[in-house]
Amino acid sequence: MPPLLDVRGLRVYYMLGDEAVKAVDGVSLKVEKGEVLGLVGESGSGKSTLGLAIVRLVPHPGRILEGSVLFKGRDLLKLPEQELSKVRGGEIGMVFQDPLTSLDPLMRVGEQLVETIMAHSQLTKEEAKEKAVKYLELVGISAERFYDYPHQFSGGMRQRAMIAMAISTSPSLLIADEPTTALDVIVQSQIMELFQSLREKLGLSVILITHDISVAMEVADKIAVMYAGHLVECAPSETLYDSPLHPYTQGLLKAVPNIELKDMKLVYIPGTPPDLANPPPGCRFHPRCPRAMDVCRREEPPEVEVGETTVKCHLYR
Question: How far apart (Å, rounded) are the C-alpha atoms in residues 217 and 38?
Fold first, then answer.
């Protein structure tokens, strides 16, 4: 059975004068039906651009130069805009980073849900309102808050409202871009539990984009690690946690604090991510890699299958 989403060789560059910022550079990944994929990496690794490129929402001056995005067997990069608009927001829901700027401050939250539902269905306004209330309650917002404005909601409630809006059209795939950014730890945990609940109740597939690998580990079936526009490792969550192969993935996991250890030392990855307008030759991680070899400085590593893991590293050639 083919995967729900199959991204192949995707390249997305931001054209800045004579320079091309290689934000996503030849990325391939798959999402199965009912699967949660955690897409992790540092800021600037290209993970948000990848999420936007799937539904062709890359902002100017970004351009999708190459590749295919097969969703239910159709290449979204080749669909006419009118057909794509039915998929975007309908079959694929989006939860953006900042719910306050994503919600219209002049419209009541419930009315925004009604508008979204009516745009992707043949329901009457009353039927759409009934459905909107149902989805607000599903994400933990009482019906009494239907007529509130976004500024009357807390950060966590605004994020819940965005999730309700994204799932109100009964999508097959939900792309959540940093849904816990700027939320406190308790609310982060509640949002993660909500994603788990929605996956179980609705059979949703989810792409969870986050810089925090520990957050992704909580809910994801599979983790894909991005670095400098490349997908450097992809594996089932348990496999990645127990046996990370790429030195970058190993560094990310070591940097996660463990409050159970009394004498834990703060571990970090030295250096900074490269300039994607002029990335280093060979492996893009080699300037920061503790295991870099001469070949890493000369040649881009191939993708290698090691058990259940796909890794882009010369150590496993």
Answer: 8
